[in-house]
Amino acid sequence: MKRLLAALLAVLLLCGCTASQINGIIQWGEGGGTDMLMRPLCTLTEPYLARKILPRNMPGGTGTLATQYVYDKRADGTTLLLGAENPAMYDALELSDLTYRDFECVLLIGCETVGVTVAADSKYTDFASLIEAAKANPGTIRLATTAKGGLPWTVARFLYAVTGATFAEIPYDSDATARNAVLNGECEVTVSKLQSGVEACREGKMRYLCMFTDASVDAFPDVPPITDYDPAFSEYLPWGPFYGVFVKKGTDAETCRTLSEAFLKGYADDAYQKLLSDLYVEPLGLSGEEANAYIEAWRAASLKALNIE
Amino acid sequence: MQNFLSVLHLLIRPEVLFPAALGTLMGVYIGAIPGLSGTMAVSLLVSLTYTWSETPAIALIMGVFVGVVYGGSRSAILLNIPGAPAAVATGFDGYPLAQKGKAAEAMGLACVQSFIGTILGILALAFLTPQISKISSLFRSVDYLLLGVLALLLVGSVSKGRMTKGLLGAALGLFLGCVGNTSQFSVNRFTFDVRYLDGGIGFIVAMIGLFGAGEALYQLSIDAPTVRQDIPKRIVPPFRTILKHLPLTLFSSVLGIFVGALPGAGGDMAALLGYDAAKRTVRRNEVPFGEGAVEGLIAPETANNAAIGGALIPMLTLGVPGDAITAVLLGALSMRGVSHLSLQSARPDLYLLILAALVLSALFLLLFGLTGIRLFVRMLHIPKGLLMPVILMLCTVGAYAINANIYDVLLMVGFGLLGFVMKRFDYPVAPIVLGLILRSLLETNAIRVVLLSASGGVFGALTPFLAALLIGAVILGQVRIGKERV
Question: Is residue A140 part of a domain?
């Protein structure tokens, strides 16, 4: 009995040790795009908070598990949601009742450019030929996605909204495995962020057919923006996945301000800015109302594509 | 030759040597603690070393990677609590060896075999990267599905002649694996609106409960004396033992390298398949499998460490991680602005650094892995009435450490009670963990295969790997290493 009590005591001690730190819950898995941006940011921010930030991955359910986990914690700023754009659309996609409206934005880090990619030896020479084939054979061209609400899935909704093209959507565990499915011929097309597609393209293994932008991108000046195919896409642009640090709504204003100031300092570090540049992430550095306005505009464009009021 | 000299030069550089040593030492002991996974340790180190220069940071991470894969076997052998999923198969024969008083011998052998596996994995990484990478990148969903089905056949290996009971356990494991939010469709299953269950039932919690707490409760309930452990003067296994099992070692290494190189498979799958293959092929074993056969220890321990070199291959060539730890490593390289594709040609210096750090880590594994064994083994001399409650405490802390969540502890207790009842009624517990581990591989790939076939995709075609796996399965059932024991 004494030993069982000792075991309980050990657990309580562990609880006590973890209580003094800040927990950062990363919405996606280890080694993914969100993970890569969040871990260094936490390391660089720690000195300004004088507290340890412990990043932890909690992937699953397009990020709903992590979002719900943070929401279920006390609104005291000790549990952060280190998330991507997905929660902005949860309610519309019926993935969860929660959205970023239930959180305060501590820092909106940056956003990314995405493009439609195929294998280097693909028969689709340009975006027009892909869309024509998809319209001629609805629901048969295999699009590698990362499940409902993920990036390729969402871009497929934009493509349908403007062109009417539909695809056979095959869900994979991550953007890396989705990309590999295209490279080994299991799927024909996917949507890749610049950071995850750029190297395979430079290696000559993959090609961007178009960028989901209204102007050409510096990294790939020869790849046309999607508006070259159909200017109607411009009503949804600019659009791209974004990343941010959030706390539960109800966290007191002073705590939010302290966190925002510290994270902004970590974000402004030269090393972090270089990281953003290396990963082709466009820096935003927004917080408070500015961040909320950005997320609302992003949500409105996405809802329009999904034809949801 | 130039590369070889460069690796030799790196081996003696202090900024490689010391971090690799520290990392391996940390890995061996972190790996031995159930609940503290290698992925968790490497993730923390990636954050901690972000501001370090490239060389010591990578050497430290490689050290932890190698150490943690071996470390998991210590608690599996001593206490029947695998420190990590890759050590589940180690416990099948490692723990029975400890129960026979041969824990020191088993731990020494596990360490040497891990070393050999790691070295063979490094050789594959150094010389066969393009070839293995090409093969692994061609592996499709239907091939993964078949691999999962092959792995499920392990139920036969771990049921110890109680096939019906084993199948029931595997079915329960597969069912429990279905609990939670489906990653592909974001739908909750069998969660009964309990939010904790949205994340599913973690197989590490199940593993700690079923193997660790279940065994401790069972040991407390039976009146068996404390086994006196042989503490040999020489922990290193005799050279003739290693030589005798060389064919099995090579076979397990090749299997480990190949399975490790398959994205999403990793060391746990390599160890399980290695154990199963050994059980099917080895016939001259002195002790039956499951009762303390050294072959049942050699195969998984070699395979899971060989999988390290294998897992790095798709990461460095395709940017697709072979397992969870390489996924973290991939992120770490990207954070440092390192091009991870074709690292061999793009950043030969870094590629050689990884090789050198792995070689050093393997050597340090031998050093640290063979020390402290006598101390660990003496722990088993503690009377059961004292030792078992300590194990229960370790299980509690281990379950809590996974996510700092008290519900994980409660779930572990539930699995502990289930494990205890199953042992009392002679049901094997390993098939439950097997079902839990394999559910995701089987289900996600089955869904993809169905969707692909609906789109007129590749399901109908017999891919080269599907054919190879089918032929391999048939051969595996026929080939025997060594002569049949009369």
Answer: yes
Contact flag B43-A57 (C-beta cutoff 8 Å): yes
Contact B105/B237 with Cβ under 8 angstroms? yes
Of A7, A195, A203, the CB nearest to B392: A7
Give the separation between CA B368 and CA B370, rounded to whole angstroms.
5
Q: A173 and B457 in contact by Cβ < 8 A?
A: no
Average pLDDT over residues B463-472: 68
Torsion of CA B285, B291, B293, B297, to 10 degrees: 150
Q: In angstroms, how far is CA A241 from the centroid of its own chain?
A: 5
Q: What is the mean pLDDT of chain A?
A: 87
CA angle B97, B98, B101 (to 5 degrees): 95
The answer to whether the CB of A84 falls within 8 A of the CB of A242 is yes
Q: Nearest 10 degrees: CA dihedral of A199, A201, A206, A207?
A: 150
Classify the complex by whether its ipTM is higher than 0.95, answering yes or no. Answer: no
Chain B residues whose CB is inside 8 A of the A171 CB are 183-185, 444, 447-448, 451
**Residues A44 and A92 occupy one common structural domain:** yes
In angstroms, the CA A214 to CA A228 distance is: 8
**DSSP letters along B134-173, please?**
HHHHT--HHHHHHHHHHHHTHHHHHSTT-HHHHHHHHHHH
Helices (H) and strands (E) in chain B, counts: 24, 2
**Same domain flag for A122 and A231:** yes
A102 in the same domain as A37: yes
User: A308: pLDDT confidence band, cut at 50, 70 and 90?
Assistant: low
Give the minimum alpha-carbon distance from A231 to chain B in angstroms, rounded to a whole number: 30
- Give the SS3 label for residue A98: coil
pTM above 0.90, yes or no: no
Of A220, A236, A252, the residue that ends a domain is: A236
Q: Where are the alpha helices (DSSP H) in B295-340?
A: 295-318, 324-335
A vs B: CB pairs below 8 A: 179
Q: Helix B295-318 and helix B129-137: axis angle, to 10°?
A: 90
Which parts of B199-261 fold into alpha helices (H)?
203-207, 214-221, 239-244, 246-260
Query: To which H or E segment does residue B188 belong?
Result: strand B188-189
Q: Which of A30-39, B289-298, B340-349, B431-440 has the lowest mean pLDDT?
A: B340-349
**Closest to A175 measured CA to CA, from B444, B321, B147, B47:** B321
In chain B, what are the domain boundaries? 2-478
Residue A180, both tokens: 């590999």
Provide DSSP, B401-437.
HHHT-HHHHHHHHHHHHHHHHHHHTT--SHHHHHHHH
Could you tell me the pLDDT band of residue B478, with boundaries at 50, 70 and 90?
low
C-alpha distances (whole Å) from A235 to each of A155, A212, A239, B59 are 14, 12, 10, 49
Asked if residue A162 and residue A205 are part of one domain, the reply reads yes
CATH number of the CATH domain containing A265 = 3.40.190.150
Joined together, the tokens standing for residue B280 give: 């099917």
Measured from the Cβ of residue B460, the count of other Cβ atoms closer than 10 Å reads: 9
CB contact under 8 A, A170 and B452: yes
Mutual angle of helices A33-49 and A253-268, in 10-degree steps: 110
Beta strands A242-248; A79-84: pairing state? antiparallel
What is the residue range of A53's domain? 20-112+240-306
Q: Among A15, A27, A30, A173, which would you mutate to test the B interface (most chain B Cβ atoms within 10 Å of its Cβ)?
A: A30
- Helices B266-281 and B295-318, axial angle in degrees (round to 10): 140
Q: How far is A134 from chain B (nearest CA, A)?
A: 12
Joined together, the tokens standing for residue A167 give 């695809």
Cβ contact B176:B298 at 8 Å: no
Is B186 close to A62, i.e. CB distance below 8 A? Answer: yes
Taking an 8 Å cut-off on Cβ atoms, the answer to whether A31 and B458 are in contact is no
Q: Which helix (H) or strand (E) holds A145?
A: strand A142-145
